[in-house]
Each structure stands twice: as structure tokens, then as C-alpha cells.
């Protein structure tokens, strides 16, 4: 039987296919040279079940840090809790407003062709509220991913799993104790709930969740430690938006604001995006634009794959796993 790796080597000769193969090879070369890879996730990659291919990659030590939208962080957990209750809507493009309202009234929250059941969110919410209250009583504050890791460590939570934890990329990141930066964490279902609890006085302070600037400082220290040890770090970006721009900006911040002129740029860059170059769009900006912002060096290996990440990313991850 032909492997994914052999199939790509044989067939991916031109255009986006060649770019995909070149990006996978360059990732492999970076790791072989002692480098590490930082991965960012935009969109709804968790609901697209990217964890099936990303989790093994993390466990294999081929990913060393992540930055995601807050939705991707929580939706991996929702998926772990209640994936069998998710509803697939293949004809989503043909839904009428009335049919959308019917889904809403059933507690089905649609993400493209997939509906997340509201009860999956309520399960996660219940345990997180307890963790927030514990932190409040102890006078402590934590990063969003630290709360998520604490939640996953609770035996009673694991009893709710309805799919193999091996398919959860957050679980794999927890096993490796990787940071998962989530700028704009409030922009998610659980972030909305947290805000409401503070507004109603059921939680005392927004400070129970460490801020975005604290996350950026943590990332700056994470990157600097690798720079000090001469470990090159690559940047693999799925989609665009805050997950990518927040984290890639740590290098220009170190160079321009902390005046560490000898700080190395990102050692590799690849983006999978269906955005096109337009007026001011970060998601559609070509990699060379990042050179002007001190994010990349002129000689940084750079790849731009104009395609659907739910198709392309699993192929690259499988290639790297030798599948």
C-alpha cells in the first residue's frame, strides 16, 4: 500500500502541491538541525477534528509551542466530551434562516457543516467555574491553558470523554507541558461565561485570567530561552488572524522594543490560507511583507500554501510522521 509520504513525493510536483511538499520537507530539515516548531491555529480547526493528525505530531515531539484562537482551545474539549452528539450538516449552504433557527432552538451551534451541542459547552463550563473559584479563594491567577490542563487532570472530567483522548491535541500538549497561547481569550463561549460571572459578582475579578500582555511576556521568555541556547524556531501558521499575528510579533517586539538587536528571526515560515492579498489584510499578506516588520529574515525558508487547511495540514502532519 502506498504511504501518504510516498504519494506526496511521487505526485506533488507543482503549484500548491509542490509548495505543500517543500514546506513539509523544510519542517523536517529544521527539526533534523536541532530546531523547534511553533504552530498557530486560526479558524475552527478543533471542530474540524485536526487533533486526529496534530495530536500524534505533538506526542512525537515535532511541535514545541502553540498559539490558537480561544475557540480552538475550548472546542477541542467540547469535541472530547460529546463528539458522538455532534450533528453533521453537509447541505449547510442551502439552509434557510428558519432551518438555522430550528438548529438554534435544539441547542445546536453551527460551525460550517458541523453543529456543536450546547450541553458539551455546559459540561466544560461547570468544571471551569469550580477552578476559577478555587483560584479566587487562593488569590491566584492563571493562563487559560493552565486552567484547561487542570480541568483535564480531574478524574471526574475524564469520565465524560466520549472519544479517545489520543485524538485531542490539547491533551497531547498537556502531556508535553507545552504552552498554548490564546490572545483574545474572551472571544469564546467560556470567555463569555467568565465575563458574565464577573459582571454579576459571582467571580470577584477579571484578573483570575492572566492577560494577553502577560501571555506575550511569557512567549517572549519562551522564545528568548531558545535563542540563548542557539535553537532555531520555525513558525507554521494555519489561517491568519490573531493567533498568527500575536505570536509572530514577539520577535519584532524583542528586537525593536527590548532592543535585542541580535535576536534571531523566525527560522522557518509557512502559512496555509485561502485569503488573497488585499488592502491591509494580515491573513493574505505574502511572507516577504513580514521582512519589513522584523519577523522574518530575507533568507528564511518561506512557504505560502493557498488552500484549505483541513485538507493540507493533515497531509503535512502525516508526511512528518512517516505515514
Automatic annotation (TrEMBL):
<dbReference type="GO" id="GO:0034038">
    <property type="term" value="F:deoxyhypusine synthase activity"/>
</dbReference>
<dbReference type="GO" id="GO:0005737">
    <property type="term" value="C:cytoplasm"/>
</dbReference>
<dbReference type="InterPro" id="IPR002773">
    <property type="entry name" value="Deoxyhypusine_synthase"/>
</dbReference>
<protein>
    <submittedName>
        <fullName>Deoxyhypusine synthase</fullName>
    </submittedName>
</protein>
<dbReference type="InterPro" id="IPR029035">
    <property type="entry name" value="DHS-like_NAD/FAD-binding_dom"/>
</dbReference>
<dbReference type="Pfam" id="PF01916">
    <property type="entry name" value="DS"/>
</dbReference>
<comment type="similarity">
    <text>Belongs to the deoxyhypusine synthase family.</text>
</comment>
<keyword id="KW-0520">NAD</keyword>
<dbReference type="InterPro" id="IPR036982">
    <property type="entry name" value="Deoxyhypusine_synthase_sf"/>
</dbReference>
Amino acid at each position: 500500500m502506498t504511504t501518504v509520504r510516498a504519494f506526496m513525493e511521487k505526485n506533488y510536483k507543482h503549484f500548491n502541491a509542490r509548495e505543500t511538499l517543500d514546506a513539509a520537507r523544510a519542517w523536517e530539515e529544521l527539526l533534523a538541525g536541532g530546531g523547534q516548531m511553533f504552530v498557530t491555529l486560526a479558524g475552527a480547526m478543533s471542530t474540524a477534528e485536526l487533533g486526529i493528525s496534530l495530536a500524534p505530531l505533538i506526542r512525537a515531539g515535532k511541535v514545541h509551542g502553540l498559539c490558537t484562537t480561544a475557540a480552538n482551545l475550548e472546542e477541542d474539549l467540547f469535541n472530547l466530551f460529546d463528539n458522538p452528539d455532534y450533528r453533521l450538516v453537509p447541505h449547510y449552504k442551502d439552509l434557510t434562516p428558519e432551518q438555522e433557527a430550528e438548529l438554534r432552538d435544539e441547542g445546536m451551534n453551527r460551525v460550517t457543516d458541523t453543529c456543536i451541542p450546547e450541553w458539551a459547552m455546559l459540561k466544560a463550563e461547570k468544571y471551569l467555574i469550580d477552578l476559577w473559584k478555587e483560584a479566587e479563594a487562593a488569590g491566584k491567577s492563571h493562563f487559560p491553558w493552565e486552567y484547561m490542563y487542570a480541568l483535564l487532570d480531574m478524574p471526574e472530567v475524564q469520565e465524560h470523554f466520549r472519544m479517545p483522548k489520543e485524538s485531542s491535541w490539547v491533551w497531547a500538549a498537556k502531556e508535553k507541558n507545552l504552552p498554548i497561547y490564546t490572545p483574545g481569550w474572551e472571544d469564546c463561549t467560556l470567555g463569555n461565561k467568565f465575563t458574565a460571572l464577573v459582571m454579576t459578582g459571582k467571580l470577584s475579578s477579571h484578573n483570575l485570567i492572566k492577560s494577553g500582555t502577560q501571555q506575550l511576556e511569557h512567549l517572549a521568555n519562551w522564545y528568548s530561552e531558545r535563542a540563548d541556547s542557539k535553537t532555531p524556531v520555525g513558525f507554521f501558521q494555519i489561517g491568519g488572524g490573531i493567533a498568527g499575528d500575536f505570536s509572530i510579533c514577539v520577535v519584532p517586539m524583542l528586537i525593536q522594543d527590548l532592543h535585542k538587536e541580535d535576536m534571531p528571526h523566525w527560522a522557518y515560515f509557512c502559512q496555509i490560507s485561502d485569503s488573497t492579498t488585499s488592502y491591509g489584510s494580515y491573513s493574505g499578506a505574502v511572507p516577504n511583507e513580514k521582512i519589513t516588520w522584523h519577523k522574518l529574515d530575507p533568507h528564511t525558508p518561506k512557504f505560502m500554501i493557498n488552500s484549505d487547511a483541513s485538507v493540507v495540514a493533515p497531509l503535512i502532519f502525516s508526511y512528518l510522521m512517516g505515514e
